[in-house]
Design goal:
Length: about 200
Amino acid sequence: METWLSYRLADLLMFSPAIYARLFERLNETLWPGHALLAALSLAMLMLAGSRTGVAHRLAAGLLAFAWGGVAWGFFGLYAEINLAAPWFAALFAGQTVMLLMLAAVGPGLALDRPRQVRHWLGLGLAIWGLVFHPLAWWAAGRPLAGTELFAVAPDPTAIATIGLLLMARLPQRGRLPLRAILLTLPVAWLLISALTWWALLTAF
């Protein structure tokens, strides 16, 4: 027991910050020039979610599910080369994909309210950060443009933007555990995992 307690989180890492950042460069290089299509799909998702028709809201939820599925398959496929836990993380994103598909198929879809309460304004800020400012922040911090983290490509901006969209969404409050809380569980869990990963990286190297 004493031996296990002597380990730090950083001791479990199998890669450096530079190697981790290189994953995003490789992924973006593989996807290029498909980024224009991803940007168009993201814009379409927002327009559909902001419309007034149920069909559009279901399509918006489907596009958000597509973003999570793309990260589960694309990013974590590469991440598995340097982290043995990557398949478990991919399963987390696949689980969120399934829940969003259910939201599209049998739920109300993704319908955005105009910001009126603190929750809506917080959601708007997070959505804008995940979709726009998160990749710009990495570029401003010194990463090459090819290494920026993008919505529907990288896990962090995808989770951040999703939390923002869900906070803004009109979702039913039936039952002891609201649908919003259920849908927020996995994105929040991933951000906690990501925060621990970066904390370990920054303290180990």
